[in-house]
Amino acid sequence: MTRIKNNDIIISKGGIKLKTNIKKQLLHLLEEKGTLIAVHRGSSTGNIIENTIASTICATKMGADIVELDIVKSIDGVFYGFHSKMELRLFGREFDLETMSSSEIDKLQFINTNMKPTGYKVERIADILNKFKGNTIFNLDRCWLYLDELLPFLDEFNMYDQLIIKSPPEDKFLDLFARLNDKILYMPIARNMEQIERILEHEIKPVAIELIFTDLDSQVVSETTIGRLKKADLLLWANAVIVGPKNVIAGPLTDDKSIIEGYDNGWGKLIDMGFDIIQTDWPSLLKEYRQNRQKKEK
C-alpha cells in the first residue's frame, strides 16, 4: 500500500508545480509511476465484495494507486460503502437499501458469485476510512448527493489528502469546491465542451478532471482540448471500465479492448493521449503493462 507522507516538498509533473499540501501526495505518485491506476469499487470477485475493506486490500495488492469507493446513506444518516441499485446482484433480492435504517443495513449479508452467503456485511464508511487512514487514496463516487452532511463527517477523519471527491460540473458544486480549493482534492466530470468551458472559466482549481467521451473524434479529447487542460494544471482521468454496452465512458478504449486486442490498443492509447489516471477493473494487468511500457521507454 502507498504510505502517505507529510512533508513540504514541491512535486512537479508535466509543468505542474504546486506547494499546496493537499495535492502533493497524488502528484508524488504520478511522478513516481507515470500513470496512476484507479480501481473500480476495489477488486472483487469470488467471495470478495466490492466497496469493502477486503476489496480495497485486494485492489492495492493488485497494483491500485487509487481505489474508487461508492457512498450511500441510511435514512438515519449513516454512510456506507455501496453502489445504489445493486441490491439484486449483491443480495439476491430486490429492495432499496437507501430506504433502510442503519440497524437494518447492519444485518444484511452479501452473497458471492456462487449465490451463497459471503460472511461479509455492508461496511460503514467510517470503518473503511479508519482502516486505511495513512494508506491508500480513495476516489469517492456518487457522494455529491450528500455533500451537506458528508463534508462535516469527513472533517472528523483529517485525511483529505487521501480523498478525491468528484461530481458533475454543476455551478453549485463548482462554487462549493472553489471555496475549499486548499482543503479538498476535487475532480469534476465533463461530458462535453460546454462543461469543460464552464470548469476552465470558473475560479475553481480542481486537481483533476474526468473526461467522458463516446468516440475518438469527440472534441472533448482533441489535442487542442487536452492541451488546454494540461496547461490549466489538471490531471486527466479516463475510465476504461465497461458498465454496459450503451454506457460508453472512454469510447472504444476499454478494458475489454485492452485485454482482448492488446494493451497498446486500449490503455496504451489513453496514455499516449495524455491521460494521467486510468480507471480499470483489471489493475494487475494494467500494472504489468505500465511496467513493461516504462522499460521499453528507457
Query: What portion of the residues fall into strands of 2 or more residues?
Result: 15-25%
Q: Report how far apart the termini are.
A: 26 Å
For the secondary structure, the number of strands is: 11
Question: Into how many domains do the coordinates divide?
Answer: 1
Radius of gyration: 19 Å
Structural class assignment:
alpha/beta
CATH topology label: TIM Barrel
Q: Give me the number of helical elements.
A: 12
**Main sheet summary:** 8 strands, parallel, barrel
Averaged pLDDT, please?
91
What is the level 1 CATH name? Alpha Beta
Order of secondary-structure elements? EEHEHEEHHHEHEHEHEHEHHEH
Strand order of the largest sheet: 3-4-6-7-8-9-10-11
User: Can you tell me the CATH superfamily?
Assistant: Phosphatidylinositol (PI) phosphodiesterase
Shape: globular
The percentage helix is 25-40%
The CATH architecture comes to: Alpha-Beta Barrel
Unreliably modeled segments: 1-20
Structural topology:
Elements: E1 11-13, E2 16-18, H1 21-33, E3 36-39, H2 53-61, E4 66-73, E5 79-81, H3 87-91, H4 102-105, H5 125-132, E6 137-141, H6 147-155, E7 163-167, H7 171-178, E8 185-190, H8 193-201, E9 208-211, H9 223-231, E10 235-239, H10 255-261, H11 267-273, E11 277-280, H12 283-297
Parallel strand pairs: 3-4, 3-11, 4-6, 6-7, 7-8, 8-9, 9-10, 10-11
Antiparallel strand pairs: 1-2, 4-5
